[in-house]
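for the writeup, i need someone to sanity check this before i put it in the appendix. the sequnce is what the collaborator sent (i think, or maybe the updated version? ugh). structure was predicted straight from it, no edits. if anything looks off just tell me and ill rerun, i have time this weekend
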Amino acid sequence: MELPHPLPPESLYNIFNPESLPFETTAELEDGQEIIGQQRAIDAIRFGIGIQHQGYNLFALGPNGSGRQTTVNLFLRQQAADEPTPDDWCYVYNFEQPHKPRAYRLPPGRAVNFRDDMKKLAEELFSVLQATFAGVEYQLQKRALEEELRGIHTEALEKLREESQGRGIALIQTPNGFAFAPLKEGGEVITPDEFMRLEQEKQKKIESEVGELQEALQRILQQIPNLHREMQKRLKELNERVVEFTITPLIGELRQKYGDLETVAQHLEEVQKDVIRNFEAFVQEEEQDGRQIIGAMMGLAAPERKASLTRYEVNVVVDNSHRQGAPVVFLDQPRYQNLVGRVEHIAQMGALVTDFTLIKP
């Protein structure tokens, strides 16, 4: 048997130079992300994550402190970083069925931009429409319609006045309306006593002519509602032309920006139509249209009309504008509201009401 040979001292240890390390202390090093051991569990996690079908789940079981959540989270985040970023989701007002808001699926980051652009559009519409309806050009066109209405009514009364004067009867305007009175040869109104002293035939003739003139006056007064409707129609057409001409460039910019999104383009088209119909919501001072003129004639006041601007907002419920890859979501309490969201309510006049802006993710 061969006897062991003695070893020299330099063979009993390896010399290591600390200066060759790329750090001063271990505090400068990042924590290791590799999982030591548990190779079967790692393979199972990778296999489960790789199944790209719905209905498959990954269940990790083990004693406390074994690093289950850390391990699964590590592989999930590595896989999610290479997955495509999911789309955004938002709700908008449904102009055809307000109780059924529309949900739009937009590319990542576009929902927030859409929301901000619609908010900016509403602010611009406020200033632009107020300036338009307070402008000289609109006021001139509106005044022309008002004068035309007054002219039709005044012209009819003047013709009746001339006809009555030709018959020796005056058309007098009183606080209670219009009245007819016979005239003397000098143009003065005959008093009741003087009228009673006239011959019976002359009285009957005057009464007959006054009756005919009263019927003509009644026909003129009956035309006021028709003039009112015509004025309302023409003023509505004027307002729609003015509003459409004013807002088309503003909404046109958004149409061009979101031209690749058919749903947004359709929504902008509906927004433009609704703004034209409800432009009063953007004007601080109530627009007194033809009803003001007719109301002065008939003792009526024009009703006030208000509309809510909430319908032009965009409610973003899913925003992936700052995300790269797929999200990894942790939910400790998977309750109904935490999974599918909720619809909040607000109290108005003793009742709970809601709208699409109160849908929460």
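Residues 200-257 form the longest helix (58 residues). Strands lie at 88-92, 102-106, 169-174, 177-182, 315-318, 342-343, 346-348, 351-353, 359-360.
thx in advance!!
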